Amino acid sequence: MKVKNQTQQTDTDGDAETFARRPTWAEIDLDALAANFRAVRRTVGGEVGVMAVVKADAYGHGAVGCARRLAAEGVDWFGVALPEEGIELRRAGVAQPILCLEGFWEGQAGALIQHRLTPVVYRRDTAEAFDRAAREAGVVADVHVKIDTGMGRLGVRHEGAAEFAREIKNFANLRVDGLMTHFASADDAGRDSFTAEQLARFREAREAFRAAGHAPTFFDLANSAATFAHPATHGNMVRPGGVLYGLWRDVLQRPQDGLPEFRPVMNVRSQIILLKWIGAGEMLGYGCTFAATRPTLVATVPIGYHDGYARPLSNSGRVIVRGRFAPVVGRISMDMTLLDVTGVPGVERGDQVTLIGADGHLSVPAEDIAKIVGTISYEITCGISARVPRRFKEEGEDSKKKGEGEKGKG
């Protein structure tokens, strides 16, 4: 297993240099990512395409490094939130079609044409702006239209789909190449009737677009939850996100036979930089929120809430050191965290600490951390900040070639 142990940073003069860094990093297992992708592919079969959602820096995992591996695995499309994210992938050499799921902002239409990015449209004015940019570039450009079937965020309301289809038929330089929607509660068995209603609304909208003379190639509806719980929603392309990164226990909550065992992709690690004994009755950290009840061996670890190690884990979280769980003690500060390692035999300064992920037979899943914090696993991995370098690892290939220069952008 080869691991890229150093990352590049750019200094103030714009020259890149490689140097030793603080011993805190996020290890990104590209083989696990590939295995999760293949599990999705097996589930949907060969007739259904897969759009890998790599928005938000691939849920904090490093979009460029992840996209390169997924491209090598044969992914059909990539989904990003913003044109800026799509442009980053293009500049990194990613050639697959890229869908901008939130559409685009005023003044970005030309950049979309230039970088061969396909926008989602759901307003007449943005469709008109994109048509104008395509006409100026002398091309007919593809768009995907989003139908709001009940999520209530973005999209043409399903009741207005027929009117919208007729309106944008007048834009000669646009081609509606896809129709999409988003399910609000596909992970909730108690709301299956609502998911079915959303699907019915989408099908009505699809017929309205066909009646208006559009011939979309793609029908993509299913997020991670719908991909596994609702096969009828597959259309001819699915849009998995969290499951690709091994985030599934709080997304695929309903009992299902034959559900793949997705592999977590991110492991956040650091090292012990200081060990000290404190006596019974001594207190630790801001606010003195921890008082030792016995002589206690305390380890200081260089990671804090600015790195994305959430402050609610103070006196509540646990990490892995030398094959043992060790509790977080005291209040997590901006740059450092304290651990009680009294029960870790042979512990030494420099020992590795696993804060998120697996080490040997023990693990601290992002989903478990999310329960303590009161959120979802996606927020935990997305929250790992840019100053925590991403180290990409995979079997049998120099991951420096795959992930050159990428740090995650939490």
What tags apply to this protein structure?
Lyase, Ornithine Decarboxylase, Chain A, domain 1, 25% strand, TIM Barrel, nine-stranded parallel β-sheet, disordered N terminus, single chain, eleven-stranded mixed β-sheet, 28% helix, 12 helices, alpha/beta
Short description:
The chain is an alpha/beta fold and 410 residues long. The protein is built from twelve helices and 24 strands.
Characterise this structure.
- With 410 residues, this protein is α/β, with parallel strands linked by helices.
- The chain folds into two domains: 216 residues, Alpha-Beta Barrel (TIM Barrel), CATH 3.20.20; 99 residues, Beta Barrel (Lyase, Ornithine Decarboxylase, Chain A, domain 1).
- 28% of the residues lie in helices and 25% in strands.
- The strands form four sheets. Strands 1, 4, 14, 15, 18, 19, 20, 21, 22, 23 and 24 form an eleven-stranded mixed beta sheet that branches. Strands 5, 6, 7, 8, 9, 10, 11, 12 and 13 form a nine-stranded parallel beta sheet that branches. It has a two-stranded antiparallel ribbon with strand order 2-3.
- Strand 8, helix 6 and strand 9 form a beta-alpha-beta unit.
- Helix 1 crosses helix 3 and helix 7 packs parallel to helix 8.
- The radius of gyration is 24 Å and the shape is elongated.
